[in-house]
Specification:
The complex is a heterodimer. By secondary structure, chain A is an alpha/beta fold. Chain A contains 5 helices and 9 strands; from the N terminus they run αβββαβαβαβββαβ. In chain A, β1 and β2 form a beta hairpin. By secondary structure, chain B is an alpha/beta fold. Chain B has 7 helices and 7 strands. The chains are: A alpha/beta, B alpha/beta. At the A-B interface, β9 of A face β5 of B.
Chain lengths: 205, 165
């Protein structure tokens, strides 16, 4: 049996090598428990979710400087924090991109951007990309709403902010807000997963 | 006399269009139903739909590989169709200048569907929305494969070869 499994694994790996494509992304599913992380903020200090003793949950947002979709959503991400941090669900932004592929996403440029725009939430760098892999983020922006339940952080929504990146005034479905509003009302979100359209994450090669 | 005048205008127009002087990039705006109809064409042509946008740097990088693909298989029933996810407001500002600059002879469409979650599964349920992505179909052969990532030039040729054989 072991032999069969290892043969299968060899074939699987060979398949990936032959086609040159990475395996399908893994990561959290809705209902999974999220593991805390320890990442550097734009102010040079390290941030963990455990630092937020009073938070009811988090809006973990994978975003970056360079991506046009991230830029279009930037003010909406800031608005999410302004609205939901006081209600117990702060935004934690994480830049997942390898800056060697996109200089605009370098740590120095993150610091500049956060200052210029006056981010009121942490903007963390995932240098090793381990946190991004653990979450299973694929694009920027890509949001994960976490909810504190019996001392653990449970993933309750994964996906897009809303249904119209181009035009905030034409939005009809506020996916992330609806999810957090449901949690605030002690209910489960109706829509738990959407596809987050945006720039693919620049993985280290 | 009138006929002569008409004839000369027609000739002038013909010369102009032949000289390429009046050639402007033709980018049609389509909806998801139009795209689905194109994907479902029941013939033995292999269609490569490349989903891209001018703002997506990996897309732009691999664009020439798709542009030159048909010429790698002379005589083959192969068509490469570019489906741009640029925004409608950027059509004249970004998309059409790109098409002109790169002298794109393939069909280029702008898919005007801002609510991605309403249609993306109709292209492929495994597509998470990242660009670039490509769909290769041959309906007569009942072949359909979706690639939600960049191709290398070699991998692209190899994939298409499988559809043509």
């Amino acid at each position: 049996m072991k032999k069969i499994i290892s043969m299968f694994l060899v074939l699987l790996v060979a398949g990936f090598v032959a086609t040159g494509f990475a395996p399908a992304p893994t990561g959290y599913a809705v209902g999974d428990t999220a593991t805390d992380f320890h990442l550097k903020n734009v102010d040079g200090k390290m941030v963990s979710l455990a630092d937020y003793k009073d938070a009811k949950g988090f809006i973990v947002t994978f975003t970056c400087n360079h991506c046009p979709f991230a830029k279009m959503y930037e003010s909406r991400i800031m608005a999410l924090n302004a609205k939901y941090a006081p209600l117990g669900y702060p935004v934690i932004a994480i830049n997942p991109n390898d800056p060697s592929q996109q200089d605009e996403d370098s740590y120095a440029n993150m610091v500049t951007r956060a200052k210029e725009k006056g981010y009121t939430f942490p903007y963390l760098v995932d240098e090793s990309q381990n946190v991004t892999h653990a979450f299973g983020a694929t694009n920027t922006p890509h949001l994960f709403v976490l909810n504190r339940e019996k001392g653990t952080l449970v993933v309750r929504y994964i996906g897009a902010i809303d249904d119209n990146a181009q035009d905030a005034s034409a939005v009809t479905k506020h996916y992330t807000e609806d999810a957090v509003n449901a949690l605030l009302a002690n209910q489960q979100p109706v829509v738990t997963k959407t596809k987050a359209i945006g720039c693919s994450i620049k993985w280290k090669s | 006399m009138v006929n002569l005048k008409l004839l000369s205008i027609t000739c002038f127009g013909l010369i102009l269009s032949l000289s390429g002087f009046t050639r402007t990039p033709k980018v049609d705006v389509i909806k998801i139903d139009d795209l689905q109809a194109m994907i479902a064409q029941p013939n033995d042509t292999t269609y490569v739909f490349n989903f891209w946008a001018t703002w997506c740097s990996p897309c732009v990088k691999e664009f020439p590989d798709f542009q030159s693909l048909e010429s790698k298989f002379p005589g083959a029933k192969l068509r490469v169709i570019f489906v741009s996810l640029d925004f409608l407001k950027d059509k004249a500002r970004s998309l059409e200048p790109f098409v002109t600059k790169h002298d794109v002879r393939n069909a280029v469409f702008l898919l005007d569907e801002p609510d991605y979650n309403s249609w993306i599964d109709r292209v492929d349920s495994t597509w998470e929305g990242n660009l670039p992505a490509s769909l290769v179909v041959n309906n007569a052969k009942h072949l359909r494969r979706f690639f939600p990532q960049e191709f290398g030039a070699q991998a692209l040729s190899d994939t298409v070869k499988q559809f043509l054989n």
